[in-house]
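Q: Hi! Curious about what MADS-box domain-containing protein looks like structurally. Here's the sequence.
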Amino acid sequence: MGRVKLQIKRIENITNRQVTFSKRRNGLIKKAYELAILCDIDIALIMFSPSGRLSHFSGKRRFAPFVSLLQTLFIPRVIVKSFCFNKSNV
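A: Let's find out. The predicted structure is below.
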């Protein structure tokens, strides 16, 4: 017997949303690290928290200058979201 599929929806409580993001962010970073080691690949994650703070992870040092540049320029979240989810960019 399999698990029941849960409906994914936005967490309305701001505190719970932030806690969930923090926990899942750490899990995602761990998986990215494992993938980088297992497959010997370069990997970078860039995430914006619910409060708008930038979080990042890079498997190799060569991504560090790129992440630093993004932090100094601070690309607005709206632009990043619209670019990432625009089907013509995929």
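A: A fun detail: Residues 12 and 18 are 10 Å apart (CA to CA).
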